[in-house]
């Protein structure tokens, strides 16, 4: 199946930056949507940013103008550049990819895969 490998994350001071990456591999036909979700302690997981194969993006209000999501379709990789980080950005960040996988000749099956969470801690 589709595997997602996440890298990045760590401890950063307020105002600092981090860059997360997520690479998908497997019998991928296409990836329609890739996104970053985050979950802070005691809170529900929320969508931070999402990008479609066509390059359309959407951001949570809390990260607008600070985070930038991008993707390299050829490499099936999505990035999240996080600037001007705040303490409230502290959370476990998860990558998700959704699309279609090859399941035989001219047969396609929808998929949605999650990567491992990576901890982002913003603290002085």
Overall spatial form: elongated
User: Number of DSSP strands?
Assistant: 11
Low-pLDDT stretches are none
Number of helices: 0
Write down the Rg: 15 Å
- Strand portion: over 45%
| Main sheet summary | 7 strands, mixed
The SS-based structural class is mainly beta
In helices, the fraction of residues equals under 10%
What does this structure look like?
- The protein is mainly beta and 124 residues long.
- It contains no helices and 11 strands.
- The strands form 2 sheets. Strands 2, 4, 5, 6, 9, 10 and 11 form a 7-stranded mixed sheet that branches.
- A hairpin with a 6-residue loop joins strand 4 and strand 5.
- The mean pLDDT is 96.
In short, what is this structure?
Helix content is 0%, strand content 60%.
List the keywords.
124 residues; mainly beta; seven-stranded mixed beta sheet; 0% helix; elongated
Topology:
Elements (H helix, E strand, L loop, with lengths): L2 E5 L2 E3 L5 E8 L2 E12 L6 E7 L4 E3 L7 E6 L4 E6 L8 E12 L5 E7 L3 E5 L2
Parallel strand pairs: 2-11
Antiparallel strand pairs: 1-3, 3-8, 4-5, 4-9, 5-6, 7-8, 9-10, 9-11
